[in-house]
Amino acid sequence: MLDFIFKPESIAVVGASEEEKKIGHVILKNLLTQGYAGKLFPINPKRKEILGLKCYPSVSAVGEKIDLAVIVVPAKVVPSVIKDCGEAGVKGVVVITAGFKETGEEGAKLEREILDLIKKYGIRMIGPNCLGVINTELGMNATFAPELPPKGRVSFFSQSGALGVALIDWAIGSGFGFGKFVSFGNKADLNETDFLEYFGEDEDTDIILGYIEDVKDGKRFIEVAKRVAKKKPVILIKSGATEAGARAASSHTGALAGSDRAFTEAFRKAGVIRVEGIKELFEVAEVFKSGKFPSGEKLLIVTNAGGPGIIAADTAEKNGLKLYPMSKESIEYLAEKLPPTAALYNPVDVIGDATSERYAVVLERAMVDPNVDGVCVILTPQAVTDVENVAKIMLEKSKETEKPFVGCFIGGPKVREATSYLKTNNIACYEDPLIAINAYSKLVHYVKYKHREEDEYIKFPISEEVKKEIGLMLEALRDAGVSVIGEENAMKILSLYGIEFPKRGLARTADEAVRIAEQIGYPVVMKISSPHIIHKTDVGGVKIGLKDEKEVREAFLEMTINVKRAMPGAYIKGVNIYEMVTGGKEVILGVSYDNTFGHMIMFGLGGVYVEVLKDVSFRLTPVGKREAYEMIEEIKGKKLLEGVRGEKPCDKDAIVDKILRLSQLVEEFPIIKEIDINPYLVKEVGGVALDARIIIG
Amino acid sequence: MLDFIFKPESIAVVGASEEEKKIGHVILKNLLTQGYAGKLFPINPKRKEILGLKCYPSVSAVGEKIDLAVIVVPAKVVPSVIKDCGEAGVKGVVVITAGFKETGEEGAKLEREILDLIKKYGIRMIGPNCLGVINTELGMNATFAPELPPKGRVSFFSQSGALGVALIDWAIGSGFGFGKFVSFGNKADLNETDFLEYFGEDEDTDIILGYIEDVKDGKRFIEVAKRVAKKKPVILIKSGATEAGARAASSHTGALAGSDRAFTEAFRKAGVIRVEGIKELFEVAEVFKSGKFPSGEKLLIVTNAGGPGIIAADTAEKNGLKLYPMSKESIEYLAEKLPPTAALYNPVDVIGDATSERYAVVLERAMVDPNVDGVCVILTPQAVTDVENVAKIMLEKSKETEKPFVGCFIGGPKVREATSYLKTNNIACYEDPLIAINAYSKLVHYVKYKHREEDEYIKFPISEEVKKEIGLMLEALRDAGVSVIGEENAMKILSLYGIEFPKRGLARTADEAVRIAEQIGYPVVMKISSPHIIHKTDVGGVKIGLKDEKEVREAFLEMTINVKRAMPGAYIKGVNIYEMVTGGKEVILGVSYDNTFGHMIMFGLGGVYVEVLKDVSFRLTPVGKREAYEMIEEIKGKKLLEGVRGEKPCDKDAIVDKILRLSQLVEEFPIIKEIDINPYLVKEVGGVALDARIIIG
Q1: Which InterPro entries does the record match to this protein (chains A, B) (predicted)?
Q2: Theoretical Cys-Cys bridge with B131: which of A161, A501, A524, B161, CB 3.0 to 4.6 Å?
Q3: Which residue ranges of chain B lie beneath pLDDT 50?
């Protein structure tokens, strides 16, 4: 718990100053004058008193318990200040000072130094290079932003301090209330996940917002976010390309994963709501303030203007919401109570001359109607519209139901008061039906996550012996400097984890080739086996459909001669003889690796579908059973697996099985960074992999 | 020219009233008190005087020239009022009154009646069932909205009156200036295209906005919009599913066209900027106010906060803008003038402690730098930021360059004044980098349209004789009640327009089959020919790869027996013998028909690509040469046509040729409503269609 940072009983401002323009002055003044009631200790060896407070030469000189030290001294002095804090038993520090990692190697060294120090003393640190911390509930403004935002139950963490300053100003202007606010700068110690966890447990926070550019510990982030998002909505902006994305991928799967994909998948796995824009962040936050969650996707739209109703309906449909008409009884009731020109279906149009009574009629029915999970109330201020009454009725009715209502009051001065009345009472109200419905649909999607059952994680029984065998192989290969593991070894490893390959055998002589082919059964495929040859086809090293002894014998000779001629230096182990597999549908199964979040399993249709159309889906490991099925459902070409043009459907269960086995493999052998199984032929029952490679690193 | 409506020298208010709550009172008062300086004539037989103006019993009783009559009498009385107006020589009427087509058959009858009357008298009409007309320049508020919006050079037409009322209120609240404003209700006479045309020629209008739910005359709309959009931006919301979309399609192409596709294509063809939301409509309008157009896609972002800069860069990339670094000289200049921690590339980060001087340094270089076509200036209000000065510098520099600048000032009270200063001076300024860049990218896309050369329309020489032949065929088929024209006739018609089909001949006997096969050359394909059999394969009516006389003879007998057994009643014309075509890439070429905009040509990859992935592109006819090439570029699988996995590229010119020929065919024979050519095999050079059907109606 980070209460000593967000609810400190005492704060030292190290580098407090009398000069009004200095940050050390601004912060002390902010703490002193904006409501913070705890003890305040200015630290500055050159002063006796600042802003009427007794000033101390050092933190340890204070001689009282200090929860939090806000440090604004020059970068080079910071290590000695932290030592001082450590000696004085300070629990948390906020290092506002810049000039660390963000400035280059020297700064990075200094940052490592202070990190070592806080670890040594058991101090937790925010920053360096940050804006600071705010807790509006305590009137605590430990930042250099000049004013506190209004109070509220939305907490915010930001990787950008400058954005923080702007958003506090915005919040003041628009009356948006914040609870806690933190800008964490270089996040040398405490990072996004720590604040997510703390806000998740914080009783004064209902909604968590954040702006991040990267994530420090991906696995922990997902684990924490998953847990927190079950309790309260987590809405994040993630901007910028990641380092992981910039890294060159050696596999097909890796190349397809791209830079942003892992974040998308991490947020999906964790139930985090991702938004793109700053306005959107707050628009979406509004819709969660009522604390009411629709039990399904059925939205009723009521409006006094046709046009905006249509825009809302269009948007709802695009976002996967359902616009059902109300039940027969409700429609009969409306028919009785509303004028004949009213539209009774969904959107319900109460017509431009509607007063609040008509809205009331609709809301009353909506509250009890089984075809309505939530209501969007659209209003345009016509001559007779009693705007404030509509707002009042919305609030009244809202109190009697668990169904969420959102408003969309379009206009200017005439709707201003009602809009702000609704917002103050935690009913979201927007100016644009598109924005209203987009926000509402985030609410619906979040509810799905909130009520989603934990996925089923399957553990295939792999013996310790097998694991040992694979471990030894991988180590040996790595020690030999191999990073790309070709077909044969890859097949061996994957087979041990239950991925099926065709029957096969390595022949060193033509006689042996015939013997193996006869064991397997004709026809067979023959491929040259050499660690030095990657593109076997190019050197005449592949022959397919060999039907009898004669053809196999000839192929063996021709192939070895061809290859020796084409690549004289290549070491040739022999020729692999494979069962010739036909039929089935080509799919690709793969693994990529993201530096932040770890392994992702990829699935897609093979051949041109993956190469040209890039029709693939990803999930971060460990992949659960539901996720594996989702991966199949997500690809655009999924109907091809279900059988088109008279084909039989493919065995989806077999694909799921393979996805889960790959997930287990890379979780148990993280040295494996990427895998391509391309193609995997999936059949009516089961399937078989035709080629594979593994990248280790 | 509709000056008599938008700039009338005299207005009669028919149905003027003394009762304050009546619309006839509100409108007269609006005209009298909000600045309109023309002559005003209240018409009401029961009064001598209203609001101090002399009142007349009828329009003809006035005895003076009247440009415009605003009619608010009950629906049933409207026809007699229009007659009166006609007799009095009134040029334009605005029928505010509701109770016409929107209420059912009786109202529709009444609407037809008034339409006949205005035609008879040569009157032009807005409405019925509308809000009315505004011209802020004249202080003319001929609506029942209580106040005029601020003056401006943006004009607006709306199919929704209620939305109009709301937007006027919004404009008042936010200071957004309008020039002319019209709500056209049922658009019995004047519709969107008339206002588009008028605003296009109006010297007081720089930007045209509109809200429409449908379009009355699609072809004219495109023709007018195309012309107007070359002169000034046209930004529209189109909401709602169209009647055309609801109509069941008989062809594959028709089914893929969907309801909204034709609008998307019409807007594209005409250079209309389509937006989805109400806020977006005005956000995008802002960016056009400067009247400056970037000469390309190269955007420079300058910011004093990293985070918002990244959001802007992400959004720019998504929207196809180019973020190049400035030239070497500029970067050297910046390196000299900006602090070492500043980021000199794009986004240029002048850092949180920047004052307006640093912004000035960057803008000065941006103005002359060839790698910059426009600039987005992002600002967050940090302690030292002199926000107003940044705005002033933007305006100053902006005056010296043709490159557009947009602002993104994030915050609340601290940026309010500067934002409004910029807006007042026609420099767009937003609160959110995402919104700023989205709007800016619309500007860039518009410029492309503005500078786009007219497409090349090719007219293939089709002889009058051929046209006559096709015309006779189509008429005969239509008269026979045929709507779906099957393979043989379809081939005949399409061949005449230059679509290639395999060599073929109809055989009535086995001997004839052999003779035709030998003329064509083996191998051949054989298909039963019967108007009653649609799914030939199902009844054993198709055989492929027949290699010699024996196989052809046997196939003929087997096929005819099979088919007679399966469908005893079917009339069998014989068996078609086709050249067996192999190789090439399957594509689909099609035509669909939209009730509003007419024919659309479709192109896509054939087989599962169209069936499962729906990877197709559309263009409205007449299709130009550039558009035809765009259709190929647009599909996701276009690389498959360019040759993957060692294949040779397909003949794109051949596809383009076929698209243009189909376009010409349906333009010349509009009785053709839909066509499917599926598959068309496109080869390295040329191509050939294997199957086709035509729908007429």
Answers
A1: AcCoA-synth-alpha, Acyl-CoA_Synth/Transferase, ATP-grasp, ATP_grasp_subdomain_1, CoA-bd, Ligase_CoA_dom, NAD(P)-bd_dom_sf, Succ_CoA_lig_flav_dom
A2: B161
A3: 242-248
Per-residue pLDDT at A251: 65
Q: Which phi and psi (to 5°) does residue A11 adopt? A: -130, 130
Pairing mode, strands B585-594 and B672-682: antiparallel
The full 3-state SS of B379-404, as one line of letters, equals ECCCCCCCHHHHHHHHHHHHHCCCCC
Nearest to A171 among B308, B412, B432 (CB): B412
What pLDDT score does A248 carry?
A: 47
Interfacial A residues in 149-208 facing B (CB < 8 Å)? 158-163, 165-167, 169-174
Which stretches within A202-305 are classed as H helix?
218-231, 243-246, 252-257, 261-270, 278-288
* pLDDT at site A220: 97
Q: Which pLDDT score is estimated for B247?
A: 41
pLDDT confidence of A643, banded at 50, 70, 90? confident
How far apart CA A37 and CA A20 sit, in angstroms, is 22
With beta carbons under 8 A apart, name residues in chain B contacting A103: 341
pLDDT tens for A499-513 read 999 999 999 999 999
Find, among B391, B410, B217, B226, the residue nearest to B312 by Cα: B410
- Is CATH 3.30.470.20 correct for A585-696? yes
CATH architecture of the region B296-414: 3-Layer(aba) Sandwich (3.40)
Residue A394 near residue A377 (C-beta atoms within 8 A): yes
Please give the residue of chain A at the shortest CA–CA distance from B387: A166
B279 close to A431: Cβ distance less than 8 angstroms: yes
d(CA A526, CA A657): 29
Q: For A523-561, b where at least 16 C-beta lie within 10 A, e where not — what string?
A: bbbbbbbbeebeebeebbbbbeebeebebbbebbeebbe
Cβ–Cβ gap B173/A435 under 8 Å: no
Q: What is the mean pLDDT of chain A?
A: 93
pLDDT of A400 reads: 96
Residue B587 β-bridge partners: B605, B680
* pLDDT tens for each residue of A403-458: 999 999 999 999 999 999 999 999 999 999 999 999 999 999 999 999 999 999 99
**Cα B163 from Cα B184, distance rounded (Å):** 12
pLDDT at residue B246 in the model: 38
Instruction: Count Cβ atoms below 10 Å from residue B686 Cβ, excluding itself.
Output: 15
User: What DSSP string describes A101-127?
Assistant: GGG-HHHHHHHHHHHHHHHHHT-EEE-
End-to-end CA distance of chain A: 37
Q: What CATH number labels A3-213? A: 3.40.50.720
B412, closest residue in chain A (CA to CA): A170
The sign one gets for the Cα dihedral B545, B550, B552, B557 is negative
Question: What are the two backbone dihedrals, phi and then psi, of residue A618, each rounded to the nearest 5 degrees?
Answer: -130, 150
Q: Please report, as a single letter, which amino acid is at residue A653.
A: D
pTM of this prediction?
Answer: 0.93
Locate the domains of chain A by residue range: 3-213, 296-414, 464-579, 585-696
The DSSP annotation for A353-367 comes to: T--HHHHHHHHHHHH
* CB–CB contact A380 B315 (8 Å): no
Q: Which residues of A391-408 are buried (b: 16+ CB within 10 A; e: fewer)?
A: bbbbbebbeebebbbbbb
- ipTM for the whole predicted complex goes beyond 0.85: yes
Give me the residue label for tokens 């003038």. B337
B279 three-state secondary structure: helix
Does A3-213 match A296-414 in CATH topology? yes
Whether pLDDT at A179 is above 90: yes
Instruction: Pick one of 3.30.1490.20, 1.20.1630.10, 3.50.50.60, 3.60.150.10 as the CATH number of B464-579.
Output: 3.30.1490.20
Q: What is the structure's pLDDT at B311? A: 92
Q: pLDDT tens, A610-638?
A: 878 889 999 999 999 999 999 999 999 89
